[in-house]
Design goal:
This protein is of the alpha/beta class. It has eight helices and twelve strands. A hairpin with a 3-residue loop joins strand 2 and strand 3 (about 110-115). It is elongated, with a radius of gyration of 21 Å.
Length: about 300
C-alpha cells in the first residue's frame, strides 16, 4: 500500500472514532494514539489492507478491549458509500442462510432444537423464516436454543425471539448514547404470528466462546429474566452496538455508538461475556442440555424459569 493511502485510512479511522465512539474520553485518547502511531511509522510496513486492518484494530482495542471497535477487513469489496457499507452483503447472507435458521429438529423426549447462525438477521430480512421455525417448535415440551455459532445480529430479532418465549412484553434493555442519555428502549415483541412458547416449558441456551454481540444479548436477556438456563462456555463479551463506515474498498471502520443497560442487572455483558449457569465445553453443551431437559421433564414439580 502507498503511504498516502495508509495515512488517509488511519486519519479517517481516528476522526470517526473521535466523533462517534460511545465513550468520548476513550475516543479522544484512541484518536491521539492512532495519529501518533501513524507519525511514528507503525503502519508504514502494511503491504495490504488486511495487514493494515489488523494493526489498527490492535491499537483500537488496546485501551479498553472493546471487540466491536475495529478496522475490519472484507474479502469482498464494500459498497461505495460512506455509511453502512456492509449492508448489501448482509442481505445476501440472510438469503443464503435461511435467515439464520441453521437447524430445527426434535430430539428424544420431544425436546426441540433451534440453532440460529451465523447472525440474528433483522426481522425485515428473516422474520418469515424465524416465525416458521418457531411454529415448528411450538409443540415441543422443552427447547434447546443453540447459539454456539452465532456471532451477532439485530436487537429487533432478539426482541422477536424473546417475545415468543416470554409471557408478556418485557423491557430487555435501555440504550444510552455517548452523552449518557437514554435514547431507546428494547422490549420483547408483544405479538407474533405463531403461538408463544409457554413459560412453564424449560428452555436452555447453548453458548460457546464464539457466541458474540446479538447472540450474547439473547442469551443474557433470557438468563437475567430467569427464562432460560445457559449451558456451555463463557461468551465473547461484546455488548456495544456499532455502526460501520467505509474507509477503503476492503476496510470498514466499525464504531460502537451506544451501550445497553439491562433492567435486572443494571449493566451488560461487555468485556465479561455471558457466564453459563452450567459450564461445559461447547462441543458437549447439546448433550448436557438435552439430559438436563429430560430430567426436568421427568420431574415437572421442579420446573423453574
Amino acid at each position: 500500500m502507498r503511504q498516502a493511502e495508509i495515512s488517509e485510512i488511519v486519519e479517517r479511522t481516528a476522526a470517526l472514532v473521535d466523533e462517534h465512539y460511545v465513550f468520548p474520553e476513550v475516543a479522544a485518547r484512541l484518536a491521539t494514539l492512532l495519529t501518533d502511531h501513524l507519525a511514528a511509522g507503525r503502519y508504514a510496513a502494511a503491504a495490504d489492507p488486511r495487514t493494515l486492518g489488523e494493526l489498527v484494530t490492535t491499537d483500537l482495542q488496546s485501551l479498553n478491549g472493546d471487540l466491536h471497535l475495529r478496522l475490519k477487513y472484507h474479502d469482498e469489496p464494500l459498497a461505495d458509500r460512506d455509511d453502512h457499507p456492509d449492508d448489501d452483503r448482509m442481505v445476501r447472507l440472510a438469503a443464503s442462510t435461511m435467515g439464520g435458521v441453521g437447524r430445527v429438529l426434535r430430539l428424544d423426549g420431544n425436546v426441540g432444537v433451534l440453532e440460529i447462525r451465523p447472525y440474528l438477521f433483522p426481522p425485515q430480512l428473516a422474520g418469515d423464516q424465524m416465525s416458521a421455525a418457531l411454529r415448528l417448535l411450538s409443540g415441543t415440551d422443552a427447547l434447546l436454543l443453540d447459539l454456539r455459532e452465532n456471532v451477532g445480529g439485530s436487537p429487533d430479532m432478539v426482541a422477536l425471539v424473546c417475545g415468543w418465549l416470554l409471557a408478556e412484553p418485557t423491557l430487555l434493555h435501555t440504550m444510552y448514547d455517548r452523552a449518557g442519555e437514554p435514547v431507546r428502549q428494547s422490549w420483547s415483541a408483544a405479538w407474533l404470528p405463531v403461538p408463544g412458547y409457554p413459560a412453564d416449558k424449560p428452555t436452555y441456551v447453548l453458548t460457546s466462546g464464539r457466541t458474540f454481540s446479538g447472540g450474547e444479548e439473547l442469551a443474557y436477556n433470557l438468563q437475567q429474566l430467569g427464562r432460560a438456563v445457559v449451558v456451555g462456555e463463557r461468551t465473547g463479551g461484546g455488548a456495544h452496538p456499532r455502526i460501520g463506515f467505509r474507509a477503503h474498498a476492503h476496510l470498514e471502520v466499525t464504531v460502537p455508538v451506544a451501550r445497553p443497560v439491562h433492567p435486572v442487572s443494571g449493566t451488560n455483558w461487555e468485556g465479561t461475556g455471558v457466564h453459563p449457569d452450567v459450564e461445559t465445553p461447547a462441543a458437549q453443551a447439546l448433550d448436557v442440555a438435552h439430559r438436563a431437559a429430560l430430567s426436568r421433564l421427568a420431574s415437572p414439580a421442579e420446573l423453574v424459569g
